[in-house]
What does this fold into?
Amino acid sequence: MVLCQVTMLDGSQFTCEAEKRAKGQYLFFKVCEQLNLLEKDYFGLCFKDNADQKCWLDPLKEIKRQIRNGPWNFSFNVKFYPPDPSQLTEDITRYLLCLQLRQDIASGRLPCSFVTHALLGSYTLQAELGDHDPDEHRTDYTSDFQFAPNQTREMEEKVVELHKSHRGMTPAQADSQFLENAKKLSMFGVDLHHAKDSEGVDIMLGVCANGLLIYKDRLRINRFAWPKILKISYKRSNFYIKIRPGETEQFESTVGFKLPNHRAAKKLWKVCVEHHTFFRLMTPEQPTKAKFLTLGSKFRYSGRTQAQTRQASSLIDRPAPYFQRTSSKRISRSLDGAPVISVTSDGSGPLGEKENGRDPALELSSDSKDEDEMPGDGAAAATTAATLDSAEEDAEESEAILRKGFNAQDLDKTQDDVLKHQASISELKRSFMEATPEPRPSQWDKRLTASPVTSLRLQAQGSADNKQKSEAVAVATTATQPVVEIEETVIVEEVRKTPKPATSAIPEVHAAPTTEPQAAAVAAKEASASSDSESEEEAEYHPQITSVSVEQIKEEPEEEEQEEAELNKQQHQPEPSPLPQPIAETDPEPEPAPAPSQPVIEDGTPDTKEDAQPPMEVVEDDGIVEEEMMVTPEEAPNGYSAAEGQGLGSLEEEDQEPRVNGDALHVDTDHLPQVICCSEPPVVKTEMVTISDTFAAQKTEIATKEVPIVHTETKTITYEAAQLDGSGDGEPGVLMTAQTITSESLCTTTTTHITKTLKGGLSETRIEKRIVITGDSDIDHDQALAQAIKEAKEQHPDMSVTRVVVHKETELAEDED
Amino acid sequence: MAGLMAGFGNFTHAVVRAVPTSLAKEALRTNKLDVDLLKAQREHELYVEVLKHKLGLEVIELPADESMPDCVFVEDAAVVCGDTALITRPGAESRRKETEAMKKVLSDLNLNIVEMTDESATLDGGDVLFTGREFFVGLSKRTNQRGAEILADVFLQDYAVSTVPVTDGLHLKSFCSMAGPGLIAIGSSEHAQKALKIMQQMSDHRYDKLTVPDDIAANCIYMNLPSKGHVLLHCTPEEFPESVKVFEKLKDHMLIPVSNMEKAKVDGALTCCSVLINKKTDV
It folds into this structure.
């Protein structure tokens, strides 16, 4: 047993014992029990790390592992400042919040003006001393209290003057008034972090209930509300947020900040993840489903969200617990005397009220609840849950708006005034809608009735001029939306959650070059499958969770993906005939195919776009390239084993190839892409670039044209030899040779890819053959396939066919649209 | 009960300054328009009249100073919020001395005076939009980042101070102002709308907006007076007939059209001509 010391908000000390291996929540619950606090989700325990930085004690982790060698000293603090304290259910919760705010104010963490200091101070006096009593409250009764970091005599006089005016106010009312005023302070609930912007300028990042605030020398220079943020990530000492495109922009942008060190970056990231989850989601995001697939830190907020805690508190049914408001004076002058609330570890405390423990409703809504939020526990149905989340999120949002609108009213207005004002505003709005065409439709007004998320989207498409263009954008947006709104944790799975993109664009194939160091490093992390999140270099978090995760997480500029997505769509369109679509491979030679003005693809990443083209393929030995194509929406399997994930991870890490979306069969071929890269790096690189250029050109060209839509059907079938390739799992061989040969006939293009690797003393030759057969339906594809396989066997009698992937794409009709 | 941020638009005093004859020829302007001095003076008298008699404010009238052709536009010389007054350092060098008289009168009113002494800072009051919940400071030809920072140092304690780039027009308030609690009047021009979007993005609060066709018409004066309720001083139908129609939809406001035709020629808007102060005895 270890002795724990907790400094309470009133300055008193709480001591209790905990098992050596106790988790954070054990201690936290002890403290809450001691306080008789039910609405505990807004609070947390802090400790100082070796660098003397304040950290939140993770309830789900062992205390010992978090504080390491430090003393078991903690402080009980508000972790999430409720933006509207009047919605708290119990006075005791509000009281504790008041205590925290008094600390914040006295320490200068929450700045206020002179007048505000005085006003808040006067409520403190009213709450703790009751009505001003001229006899008892002599001139200097205020000097025991600290109202401001630098309190003056003048301020104390002002406080007294105001205290007199609160006559008759109960302590609970005084606390409420205190909170109603404090919550309006611009820095209320803002957790500040030092950082530098991209130009090295010192700034502050503030995390709060609504989002992220950027300050420079006290000036707010930017603000990113949670709905605007698509992804939060950190890498080493850098912190990144990906921003949803505004009405006029097409693409997301990523903003990076430099934190003093890695620890600070991670801390900021965690705070963001927690605040986002707590204030914006209905339920916490499920933690990583399987440990080995963790991408970066698997940290997620594990407690209840504000929505959940509110719901739970609505069930609180107990007489208001008695508690004694103690002197906030102790906050600054804590050295004197014993605490007024005698806090002992025997659990019973002076407060009684133990019956609440037996109330079933309470039981349900408080302690027990936390138990089933252990990580790894709720892996089931994460997708469904997530869907609900996003739907409900919007609901919550609009509710929040309503509330906000109400709160914004002046305090001293009567209810009538407020209503009247609201009525007049709404009448104003109505009359705008009915009458004036002159004022442009107000986006803002729209936003009042819809959730910001929705209205942003509306706006994105709404611009009346340049209709064509915006349509194109809309296409791109739709294509990307799912891409960005994925949950971070499990790459492999996400790839497979591909929804059915009816005809063409198969999201996986856009796998943009992973040459991005970030993605690679992420994968590296994943591969190492570190189970200790403390050691992670980086992590990502996608605040907008939707279940339909289409894409793996990537850091590439979204532009490329969009372009490609669009391209894929277009590719089918201008070419209604299923005639030969040339396909180039990792082929250094110029493409001899009779290329129509179609985007001719391919390079080191042939797999990425091929699906749009090859009607059929035969692969001998094992083909990575084709594997990618197997992951078509229809076929995409859903459950993948850990080993696969790991293999995948290392694959991504090593070869910097865009094939994050590979599947199980990657395992034994990890090294292959690397091989390709090694052998022909210049080709690969240059062609990559060319491609994206082509895309860009293509995009603009096509976007302005009307193109017939051709529906295609995609089918992929895999035949696989039962035998397992011994080379397997991750052991990378040493490349000896690699070569690619392309040959063509009238309606087939055959690409043969031969690699020789040395693995554990054994030389291994792999031949991967890709045969693209293009032609009208009068060609018997099955026969062509059989022929191709036969030929392959004949050519290499000494080798075995391990895998055949047939990818078939047929156009359904000339065009239906 | 005087809560924090209560009583938006509640004013008891106004500081104004007479029109100097030098205004017609020498006042700074972005357009080359001829100003009819007499008309301008008459206009200003009416403006003061409204504040004084129609609304019952205690109006402190500073005499004109011929060496300061722009001195009638007192707003630029000081930002007053609650009991605190920030004496600015106007962006136009020729206007720096205007603050002296302002400082004196405000300290006579017992306000806490903070002076902007930093030589690298400039700030015109016309770039400061106080919404009742927060400040927006336009970064314009007249106001720089440093000026905004100093304003933030003075007022941030209670209020957020956000910056808004002013790409077109003289001041932030050349195309917007508050038309009620949580109601921003905004011009229709592209830059006005863009600025509004930035403000929306920067704010934790939600505002309604009142879009008027003419940018300058979006500069109006809102007050919430104990005896009158919501009061709005806005442009006249002669100046901006279409914009007036929009204001007329504000049913709960006492609407007072005030002509500003001549002063507008030298970029003076309605808010420019007064500094409004709330001197209550409580808090």
